[in-house]
Structure prediction request, 353 residues.
Amino acid sequence: MEDLKGSAETEENDLSENLEFWMTRLPARLQTVPINCLAIPGSHDTMTYTIAKYNEVGPDESMAIQFLGRYCSLISKPIIFNWSITQYDNVTQQLNGGIRYFNMPRYLDLRVATKLGSDGIYFLHGLYGSEISDPLQEVADWLATHPNEVVILDFQHFYIFSDAHHRFLIEKIHTLFWGKLCPVFGNFSHISLQWLALEKYQVFVIYRHVVAKDYTDLWPSGFWPTPWPDTVHADYLLNFLDTKLGCRSPQTAFVSQCLLTPDTFFVMKHVCGNLYRDLSETCRHAILPWIQKNSPGSEGLNIVIADFISNHNFEFPKTVIKRNSQILKDSQDPSYPRTYIQVQSREHSESKY
Prediction:
């Protein structure tokens, strides 16, 4: 296990040298920056590595696609599969590769759905994926051996969900991450990696459903805006990212979705293609320079997510993590506003939301 001593002495050009322990190894100055000011890499539709080519078509697809999946499955399901896979790496591989936000399924993007005829709750993206228990257990097990790392789990898109399903899922979250869930506060001003380590909090759970208001440790959507570009055009994507980042509130966290999303016309035009081959490289060439030109901070980069995060030897998470060195450079300027915060014990922290 990583030797945590001396992590404060890590040089800025080594920020992404050890992706598995990159938060642990951040210099002391970055450990005291509010977490909504750090550049944090995430994966889009984190759990799509669990979907299988001939699984049932999910309720997130249109009625027409569900019809084709039922009656023309030999043709339609492989096509749906090719355009639904966004990650090839499992949870542990993504965590070891520096990913700390799961858009889940998810993330991990947690697109969770109940499967007809089953008591379990399943990840979903076009086709059904695995039942949720094992991947979430993987996250919990990984955190147990990485005590200074923090993970953000974003649960969204609940299909065919009853109140009982929400209670079941929330109970599972509480069981798996007992004692590690960061409570909801009115802002992020005191929530740094140093403070989280002091309090032994390692998990933020964003639960994008009204039921979150009944829990003090499920963060509602408003604190973690995540605008979706919904385009196949790289130029539009970059303009969208610039516009939304420029409107970001410094009081919230912020998710920049650096991804291209195929529509029906695009899929029909590339019916023998797939997301990886026909969009991911175009996207990569667009987003990496965009990430490198933007700086982290309360009005800058925060959480940045992408598809196929391990491409080119985890080039995407490395690029995001390295942007935190800009905070170190800027802090050398006497006119730069201080973003460091005084760590306080739990009883002296501001009131919960």
